[in-house]
Amino acid sequence: MSIQFYNSLSHRVEELAPINPGKIGMYTCGPTVYNFAHIGNFRCYAFEDILKRTLMASGLKVRHVMNLTDVDDKTIRGSQAEKLPLQEFTRKYKDAFFADIKTLRMVPANVYPAATETIPEMIQLIQTLFDKGIAYQAEDKSVYFSIEKWPAYGQLVKIDRDAMRVGVRIKMDEYAKDAMADFALWKAWDEADGDVWWDSPWGKGRPGWHIECSAMSSKYLGKTFDLHCGGVDNMFPHHEDEIAQSEAANGCKFVNLWMHCAHLMVEGQKMSKSLGNFYTLKDILAKGYSGREIRYVLIGTYYRQSLNFSFQALDEARGNLQRLDAFTSRLADVAKNGASGAVTAEQQAAFDAARDAFLAALQNDLNVSAGLGVLFDFLRDCNRELDGGKFTAEAARAAQAVLAKMDEILAVLEPDPSELQIPAEVQALADERQAARAAKDWAKADAMRKALDELGWVVKDTPKGPQLLKK
Ligand code: AMP
Ligand code: ZN
Fold first, then answer.
1. Does ligand 1 come within 6 angstroms of the Cβ of 271?
2. Could you tell me the distance, in angstroms and rounded to a whole number, from the CA of residue 154 to the centre of ligand 1?
């Protein structure tokens, strides 16, 4: 078995080599809980979910830590605007986040540490950097990381050392590469922070964003761990600063494998809160799409390629999922009612090949498109055999097992409860159409079909009677 991923640190595809055989420690930067996450954020979490499920399906035991950034510049500003205590303000967005990841069928992390619950570990880490002479307290009382004192700075992104603004300080959490300077580890309290502060050896204040992830990851995964992920926008400064802080403090390698996913775009621009071009999950569910359909779109594009979000893509996902649903119910029918008889050697070989090819595609830097190609080839081949009456109940059950294995990673084969519900008015129209057909009133039957179409439903006549499908 070979598992290979592109490592943003080495810029190469590498064979996965767990630090502890059979186990993977995985840290993913979680949401900043100052607003509802948008589906751009969920593209990133969906990529991480596919990654984690691939590792698990490969027999590895994954310990996954995802932090919740519940104190930073944005959460403080938001809580003040709403005149709510910080904890109360962020609670609502934490709850919404957990509901959303459930809707999108993501395997929950083992731990979701909150930044506000990890302050002592952050202070400890800053103290170590301070004792080593790499951190210093400036006149503004804040504590900064001196990039001049850490020549290894710049491992993920190419740094122009001449452009380094030595001795210049940047207090903001987010900044561009050309504003690279000493960054804040501990931010001294000022009036804008209101009642948000903690005591520290450097006076009252709060942590910088980057130190949060350095402290939370090593608390739960150790000083050196296997895998760290996020979106490409996190590479600089966030991940670069995490590496600098952790390696400078701990004197050992921080993370072996870094993986970053490309952005979800809307009309050529990154979906983001600051551009205002974003949809939350709720926005899309309100338009009648299911969590499963949204998941299908989010996972369908290779993670290092940007994904252009559109409603057309959601409609295509619906069509693909309906094909899969028709296939799974056909298999279920034969598994239950089909004739008895052993799976042939050729069938078994084809099933094994499909299952292995699917996993191999995912193990090859998460090539989901190739994996879906294997799945749809499998569907076509099985349908051909089913058409020819070559599937016994046992063969159908063996094919179901192959699908179940693939779905351990995809998690899209089970319809959402909302997808199975047919609204009463739609059912009434379908019944009227059926009655009109029985009375050979074709004009009326056609009118009913049109009315259903306008409500977004199509009716398909099958040997078992009419079946209603969402368009
Ligand atoms: P934030 O809450 O802004 O810190 O973002 C949480 C995660 O979502 C980070 O890993 C970001 O890199 C990622 N992210 C933000 N916007 C997008 C986007 N448009 N497409 C993909 N990932 C994104
Ligand atoms: Zn982080």
1. yes
2. 21
Q: For ligand 1, what atom is nearest to the CA of residue 263?
A: 20
Query: Residues whose CB is under 5 A from ligand 2 (ion)?
Result: 29, 213
Centre of ligand 2 from the C-alpha of residue 239, in Å: 7
pTM of the complete model: 0.92
Amino acid at 298: L
pLDDT tens per residue, range 79-110: 999 999 999 999 999 999 999 999 999 999 99
**Of the residues 233, 236, 272, 274, which should be mutated to test ligand 1's pocket, given the most ligand atoms within 8 Å of the CB?**
233
Tell me: the pLDDT tens digits for 159-207? Answer: 777 777 777 788 888 877 666 789 999 999 999 899 999 999 999 999 9
Q: Which residues partner with 198 through β-bridges?
A: 205
